[in-house]
Amino acid sequence: MARSVIQKHRSIRRHVSSIYRxxxxxxxxxxxxNYSLYVNKVLKEVVPHGGISSRTxxxxxxxxxxxxxxxxxxxxxxxxxxxxxxxxxxxxxxxVYLLCPRKLAKHAVAFGSEAVHRFVHx
Length: 122
Description:
By secondary structure, the chain is mostly helical. It has helices spanning 2-19, 36-46, 54-81, 89-99, 102-120. The mean pLDDT is 82.
């Protein structure tokens, strides 16, 4: 009889301790990506022996995330203006033309269209 009472208390202790165990939380924010790897690859293509500091990588990352968010918001707005429920490449292209200067927008749309074409046909 005494053994069964002791075993009950042991199982209760194990159960209670697992409840109060410290949980590890994931602190990754899914809305913001890190583009430092891609920035570094482009930098090495342009300047093979050059480098930039981690602070500059952070600034570039913030800039890219900001531009991405602006283009996404403007494309969403264009989609609603056309009374559509699906985001199309035309919406994104129009958003780029509205947000970026003329020559930069032309190059961005050209490179983006080429990248999408290569992705679809690979």
